[in-house]
Amino acid sequence: MRKFLLLCCTLFLLSACSVSEKYQKIPSNETVDEKKPEKVEQKAPVTKDKKISVAMIGDVLLHEQLLHYKDYSPSFAAVEDDLQSYDFLLANQESMPVGKAFGLSGYPKFASPDYIVRDLKEAGVDFLTVANNHTLDHGEKGVLAALKNIESYGLPYVGAYKSAKDQQKMRIVDVKGIKIGILAYTYGTNGNETPPGKEYLVNRIDLNVIQKDIKEIRPNCDVVIVNMHWGIEYQSKPNAKQKQMAKAISNAGADIIFGNHPHVLQPYENIVANDGRKTHVFYSLGNFFAAQQDKLTYVGGIASLEVVKDAAGTIQVDSPRLIPTAIIEKNGVYFVEHLKDVEKQAVRSVDWVKDTVGLDE
């Protein structure tokens, strides 16, 4: 009997040990040996600065010798790589592209073929300014026809408008995340008056209006460009009025001023506004493509700047540059060339351009 009891006690103890081992193997949050997952530190994504190039070419003015080209692309081929290299390129289309319906004509009342817009766009132009002394050469009908043609080729415009509503629409272009606002004005329209009540057809220079326009567009964009059709023809230095207006436009909030109308190059200037900002002024870019009698107008330039927007939204406009260009006639056909490549044929040298503008290529 005692042996039997001893046997039963032994079996019971062995069973208890087995159950105890079983339950000890169940995972527990309190198990000392358990490895907890390591915390992975999430790094904020690195925000890179945004950087673009902004540029403008001078007057596109189709005189009689240039009216009947079927395609202007060959005329721009030599500088096309430069034109297409910029992120945003403006051009002053001075002779209105009204088309054949108005009868093509040169000076003094220009009527240019509409496809000059097509070929400028293909060459790299992104935006046209059309506030100049020839805007009203063919009156209201001419403005409306020209703007319709410009729109048909998919280019935006500034300085002349179809209606008051069109004029009130801010011209702001987003270029790779940097918003550029564009304004344009002309000193006059060669005595061609604006029809009463239709002042929207062309923007005229009025400092009060310009300052108001800059104040309105400034909060909506990163960079403000103002195109001014001003100055005295064939003068290679800005006059006192240009200087005065440039200072006022700078203080109003403009970052860049591109000038046209003199048909020759004028200096670059860096103006410091009252609030400490820099305003880059190219007083005149000369002619890009034209055929005036005065051969001194056959030299112009491509002006450019770099715009940088950092992660904090701070904007810096810098690195002003001008590439000199020359209009060269070959067997009755006119071409835009790099001045350095045709210096022996041109009326001005690269050194003259450097001395006049104050910038190296």
Automatic annotation (TrEMBL):
<dbReference type="Pfam" id="PF09587">
    <property type="entry name" value="PGA_cap"/>
</dbReference>
<comment type="similarity">
    <text>Belongs to the CapA family.</text>
</comment>
<dbReference type="InterPro" id="IPR029052">
    <property type="entry name" value="Metallo-depent_PP-like"/>
</dbReference>
<keyword id="KW-0732">Signal</keyword>
<feature type="domain" description="Capsule synthesis protein CapA">
    <location>
        <begin position="53"/>
        <end position="292"/>
    </location>
</feature>
<dbReference type="InterPro" id="IPR052169">
    <property type="entry name" value="CW_Biosynth-Accessory"/>
</dbReference>
<dbReference type="InterPro" id="IPR019079">
    <property type="entry name" value="Capsule_synth_CapA"/>
</dbReference>
<feature type="signal peptide">
    <location>
        <begin position="1"/>
        <end position="20"/>
    </location>
</feature>
<protein>
    <submittedName>
        <fullName>CapA family protein</fullName>
    </submittedName>
</protein>
